[in-house]
Amino acid sequence: MTVLAREEFCLVVPPGEPPFEDSISLAELYAFPLAVPMRNNNVRRSVADVIAQHGCMLDVRFEVDSLSTIINLVMEGKAYSILTPSAIQKEASQGLVRMVKIVDPVITRSVVLAVNPKDERSPAVSAIRKLIPKVARTLIESRRWSATAPDRA
Protein backbone atom coordinates (compact mmCIF):
# COMPACT_ATOMS: atom_id res chain seq x y z
CA MET A 1 0.00 0.00 0.00
CA THR A 2 1.11 3.52 -0.78
CA VAL A 3 -0.14 6.46 1.28
CA LEU A 4 -1.27 9.13 -1.18
CA ALA A 5 -2.56 11.77 1.22
CA ARG A 6 -3.99 12.60 4.61
CA GLU A 7 -7.37 14.27 4.89
CA GLU A 8 -8.89 16.07 7.88
CA PHE A 9 -12.54 15.58 8.72
CA CYS A 10 -14.80 18.58 9.14
CA LEU A 11 -18.29 19.30 10.42
CA VAL A 12 -20.55 19.71 7.40
CA VAL A 13 -23.05 22.46 8.16
CA PRO A 14 -26.27 23.58 6.43
CA PRO A 15 -25.90 27.10 5.00
CA GLY A 16 -26.89 29.85 7.42
CA GLU A 17 -26.79 27.54 10.47
CA PRO A 18 -24.42 27.56 13.45
CA PRO A 19 -21.63 27.17 14.27
CA PHE A 20 -20.47 30.32 12.55
CA GLU A 21 -16.83 30.02 13.65
CA ASP A 22 -14.15 28.55 11.37
CA SER A 23 -13.45 25.70 13.77
CA ILE A 24 -15.11 23.62 16.48
CA SER A 25 -13.65 21.34 19.13
CA LEU A 26 -14.37 17.63 19.13
CA ALA A 27 -16.13 17.95 22.50
CA GLU A 28 -18.61 20.47 21.04
CA LEU A 29 -19.88 18.15 18.30
CA TYR A 30 -22.52 16.61 20.61
CA ALA A 31 -24.67 19.72 20.09
CA PHE A 32 -25.37 18.93 16.44
CA PRO A 33 -27.78 16.27 15.12
CA LEU A 34 -25.75 14.14 12.74
CA ALA A 35 -26.29 12.06 9.63
CA VAL A 36 -23.36 9.65 9.35
CA PRO A 37 -22.41 6.52 7.40
CA MET A 38 -23.46 3.13 8.77
CA ARG A 39 -21.34 1.56 11.52
CA ASN A 40 -19.52 -0.80 9.15
CA ASN A 41 -18.17 2.14 7.09
CA ASN A 42 -14.44 3.01 7.40
CA VAL A 43 -15.18 6.73 7.69
CA ARG A 44 -17.61 6.08 10.53
CA ARG A 45 -15.09 3.83 12.31
CA SER A 46 -12.31 6.42 11.97
CA VAL A 47 -14.47 9.10 13.55
CA ALA A 48 -15.92 6.76 16.21
CA ASP A 49 -12.43 5.67 17.30
CA VAL A 50 -11.31 9.25 17.95
CA ILE A 51 -14.60 10.12 19.67
CA ALA A 52 -14.24 7.09 21.99
CA GLN A 53 -10.56 7.80 22.74
CA HIS A 54 -11.48 11.29 23.94
CA GLY A 55 -14.61 10.31 25.87
CA CYS A 56 -16.85 12.48 23.70
CA MET A 57 -20.41 11.86 22.55
CA LEU A 58 -22.23 12.41 19.26
CA ASP A 59 -25.93 12.93 18.58
CA VAL A 60 -26.36 10.50 15.68
CA ARG A 61 -29.89 10.89 14.30
CA PHE A 62 -29.45 9.18 10.91
CA GLU A 63 -27.25 6.25 9.86
CA VAL A 64 -27.22 6.22 6.07
CA ASP A 65 -25.47 4.06 3.45
CA SER A 66 -25.51 6.74 0.76
CA LEU A 67 -23.12 9.71 0.73
CA SER A 68 -25.48 11.68 -1.52
CA THR A 69 -28.35 11.14 0.95
CA ILE A 70 -26.18 12.37 3.83
CA ILE A 71 -25.23 15.48 1.85
CA ASN A 72 -28.87 16.09 0.89
CA LEU A 73 -29.92 15.86 4.56
CA VAL A 74 -27.36 18.56 5.38
CA MET A 75 -28.34 20.77 2.42
CA GLU A 76 -32.01 20.52 3.50
CA GLY A 77 -31.10 21.58 7.04
CA LYS A 78 -32.25 18.28 8.56
CA ALA A 79 -28.83 17.25 9.90
CA TYR A 80 -25.12 17.96 10.06
CA SER A 81 -22.40 15.47 9.19
CA ILE A 82 -18.72 14.69 9.68
CA LEU A 83 -16.98 14.15 6.35
CA THR A 84 -13.79 15.07 4.53
CA PRO A 85 -13.69 18.13 2.28
CA SER A 86 -13.23 15.90 -0.79
CA ALA A 87 -16.63 14.33 -0.13
CA ILE A 88 -18.41 17.69 -0.28
CA GLN A 89 -16.16 19.74 -2.55
CA LYS A 90 -18.83 20.41 -5.18
CA GLU A 91 -21.60 21.32 -2.72
CA ALA A 92 -19.29 23.53 -0.62
CA SER A 93 -18.05 25.40 -3.72
CA GLN A 94 -21.68 26.11 -4.65
CA GLY A 95 -22.54 27.34 -1.13
CA LEU A 96 -24.97 24.48 -0.52
CA VAL A 97 -23.07 23.41 2.63
CA ARG A 98 -20.29 24.86 4.76
CA MET A 99 -17.21 23.20 6.23
CA VAL A 100 -16.16 23.86 9.81
CA LYS A 101 -12.77 22.49 10.82
CA ILE A 102 -12.78 20.02 13.72
CA VAL A 103 -9.95 20.74 16.18
CA ASP A 104 -8.74 19.64 19.58
CA PRO A 105 -8.08 17.06 18.26
CA VAL A 106 -8.11 17.00 14.48
CA ILE A 107 -9.57 13.79 13.00
CA THR A 108 -7.60 12.51 10.01
CA ARG A 109 -7.60 9.59 7.63
CA SER A 110 -5.05 8.27 5.19
CA VAL A 111 -5.92 7.84 1.53
CA VAL A 112 -4.03 4.83 0.23
CA LEU A 113 -3.41 3.11 -3.08
CA ALA A 114 -3.71 -0.65 -2.74
CA VAL A 115 -3.05 -3.15 -5.50
CA ASN A 116 -4.38 -6.68 -5.71
CA PRO A 117 -1.32 -8.98 -5.44
CA LYS A 118 -2.58 -10.94 -8.48
CA ASP A 119 -2.31 -7.79 -10.61
CA GLU A 120 0.95 -6.42 -9.21
CA ARG A 121 3.15 -7.61 -12.09
CA SER A 122 0.92 -6.31 -14.87
CA PRO A 123 2.62 -3.57 -16.93
CA ALA A 124 -0.62 -1.57 -17.05
CA VAL A 125 -1.10 -1.76 -13.28
CA SER A 126 2.54 -0.82 -12.74
CA ALA A 127 2.20 2.25 -14.98
CA ILE A 128 -0.96 3.42 -13.23
CA ARG A 129 0.57 2.71 -9.83
CA LYS A 130 3.42 5.11 -10.70
CA LEU A 131 1.06 7.74 -12.14
CA ILE A 132 -1.54 7.98 -9.35
CA PRO A 133 0.84 9.34 -6.63
CA LYS A 134 2.00 12.04 -9.07
CA VAL A 135 -1.59 13.03 -9.85
CA ALA A 136 -2.43 13.09 -6.13
CA ARG A 137 0.56 15.34 -5.38
CA THR A 138 -0.37 17.69 -8.25
CA LEU A 139 -3.94 17.98 -6.97
CA ILE A 140 -2.71 18.70 -3.42
CA GLU A 141 -0.07 21.23 -4.50
CA SER A 142 -2.55 23.05 -6.77
CA ARG A 143 -5.04 23.15 -3.86
CA ARG A 144 -7.69 21.34 -5.90
CA TRP A 145 -7.63 18.63 -3.23
CA SER A 146 -7.82 19.78 0.37
CA ALA A 147 -5.39 17.18 1.68
CA THR A 148 -1.80 16.95 2.86
CA ALA A 149 0.92 15.00 1.07
CA PRO A 150 2.15 12.12 3.26
CA ASP A 151 5.67 13.55 3.54
CA ARG A 152 4.25 16.87 4.78
CA ALA A 153 1.72 15.56 7.29
Describe the structure.
It is a single chain. This protein has 153 residues and is α/β, with parallel strands linked by helices. The chain has 2 domains: 7-110, 3-Layer(aba) Sandwich (D-Maltodextrin-Binding Protein, domain 2), CATH 3.40.190.290; 111-152, no CATH class. It is built from 4 helices and 8 strands. The strands form 3 sheets. It has a 4-stranded mixed β-sheet with strand order 3-7-2-6, with helices on one face. A two-stranded antiparallel ribbon has the order 1-8. The protein has a two-stranded parallel sheet with strand order 4-5. Helix 1 (42-53) links the parallel strand 4 and strand 5. It is globular. The model has no long low-confidence stretch (mean pLDDT 93).
Major sheet details: 4 strands, mixed
What CATH calls the topology of the largest domain is D-Maltodextrin-Binding Protein, domain 2
Low-confidence runs (pLDDT<50, min 5 residues)? none
Principal-axis shape equals: globular
Number of helices: 4
Secondary-structure blueprint:
Blueprint: E1 2-8, E2 10-13, E3 23-25, E4 33-37, H1 42-53, E5 59-64, H2 67-75, E6 81-83, H3 89-93, E7 98-103, E8 108-113, H4 123-141
Parallel strand pairs: 3-7, 4-5
Antiparallel strand pairs: 1-8, 2-6, 2-7
Short description:
This protein is α/β, with parallel strands linked by helices and 153 residues long.
Annotation keywords:
153 residues, alpha/beta, D-Maltodextrin-Binding Protein, domain 2, 2 domains, four-stranded mixed sheet, two-stranded antiparallel ribbon, 4 helices, 8 strands, globular
